[in-house]
Amino acid sequence: MPFPSPEPHAPSPFFVQSPPRLGNQYRDDGFLREWLRRKLPEEVLRDIEADLDGMGSLSGGELYEMQLQDRLHEPELTQWDAWGNRIDRIDVSPLWQRAADIAARRGLIAIPYERHHGRFSRIHQFALVYLFHPSSDVYTCPLAMTDGAARTLTVAGNTALIERAVPNLTNRDPARAWTSGQWMTEATGGSDVGISLTQAQRDAQGRWRLYGKKWFTSAINSQMALTLARPDGNAAGGAGLAMFYVEAHDAQGRPNGIRIERLKDKLGTRKVPTAELLLEGTPAELVTEARNGTRAIEPMLVVTRAWNSVTSVAFMRRALALAKSYSAQRRAFGAALGDLPLHVDTLAGLEAETRAAFLLAFELVELMGRQEANEIDDQQEALLRLLTPIAKLLTAKQAVATVSEAIEAFGGAGYVEDTGLPVLLRDAQVLPIWEGTTNVLALDALLRGNAAAGLAALGERLRECRSQLRDDGLLRLAQTAASALDHVREWLRCNGEAASLQSGARRVALTIGRTWQLLLLIEHAHWALEKEQQRTGVAAAIRFAAAPIDSLADISPDDSRDLLR
Ligand SMILES: Cc1cc2nc3c(=O)[nH]c(=O)nc-3n(C[C@H](O)[C@H](O)[C@H](O)COP(=O)(O)OP(=O)(O)OC[C@H]3O[C@@H](n4cnc5c(N)ncnc54)[C@H](O)[C@@H]3O)c2cc1C
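A: This is the predicted complex of the input protein with flavin-adenine dinucleotide.
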């Protein structure tokens, strides 16, 4: 005899745990609102607050729901049509289509180019990005490259290309808005792009055509890309490469001498179509000179590293918002998790890391805004140069660690796919890899540019901050920061030799980054004490400094090599 089937919606006779819930992600983020009050003139905040509130509502509401309901949808590549034409069409998820519409209408790329709020426009833009990102299934990947492309073309000053592409890249009309790719990495190397093999040749009409294979190209459904190739006869190395502008389709909508070989089967960012491409005589426009391409594409990297930093913090904030919500509902040992002292201590550690990461990422945003509005002095310029790699590398590491810990805060539920939690960790794991790995950025910070000028500016900033402090706790923390900074300078002085400088570069970069974060926490705590008479900022700084700030060590490169034998 068959079992009687259960009533379709009968309540379970067993205990059922309530899931974590999200509210309006702007209203719920007290720290973001506090920081905006501190940094923005009142009239600017008044002007943009409805925007932020709207994005907070979408992010904690409609988009988050879509994300949970459409977990399994992945981009599809259709290489041929029914009649044998090569079409290489990419279909993306409904959430990506909705995200594209929201991003254009709400000006996620347009805002810093319209620059209605001068140097604060970057803050406006990135506060929206921060709210949008965790519910966008990493639609921020094409947006980052689009912003980077608009900036790179603008800086390069090629009028024809600026007129052709930038109005599309920054368009608020979803039907006209373009996104851009950035095709740099080849199978030979993503860090060392100087050894790229793609060739650029002029055809009979004098038009540049590209031949080669690009190994990682994300957001391959974009309308255009900036890429690197070596003009025939150019020397080896990065200086022999040139930067080119490519459109993905010809006037008839056919692939423009580009074949999508396959989509990558990735650990995370699975909603992002990342492809391997063959360039088979792809028509291309030279953006500037026929060499020095790695230098010409640098503005792209500055912008995408800022996006990486902000999206790292956004993942941290999302993981923590979910973990906090869960801690109010889940009970163990007769109490809500949120009332168990050790669970509270664990989450408080994550909150301190998240605030520190936020302050570092938005310091970068603030400096970028100043630079673009021509309101930057030499000291700030030196800080910006040093901060760009440091913020990217440190916030990405913090994102992976914080998201991992937040997932543990759910116990077994955190490991179960349809809670929507594991994807956070898989997606976060890309942050330390793309746009420059941790090691490559550490070397970039210390060996390229003028690290000494950046460190001097940071030291000056710390001295200025200390001179204003009155709270004993903050004064002690400022001493910790000063000692760490002195140690960095001393270490660099004693380890000028190439092998030891390189082998210690990651520890130096992390120490600079965490010292900078401590300084920013102290500055913020001081402001909150003086202006709003509240001490949570002091608690955050103390908590942050309880984890190591200074990770420098005298480790010989030879010992490390021996360890691996
Ligand atoms: C999901 C995803 C999407 C991507 N999308 C794009 C894209 O759209 N466009 C694009 O151009 N690229 C893209 N990339 C590629 C990415 O930028 C590269 O993977 C990255 O730059 C690293 O390059 P690589 O993979 O060749 O690693 P390698 O350069 O081979 O590095 C391997 C390891 O060696 C280390 N290393 C390298 N050099 C040094 C050194 N001098 N000292 C110490 N350590 C070193 C690195 O830190 C790394 O840990 C994407 C990657 C991923 C995972």
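Residues 79 and 88 are 4 Å apart (CA to CA). The chain is about 55% helix and 10% strand.
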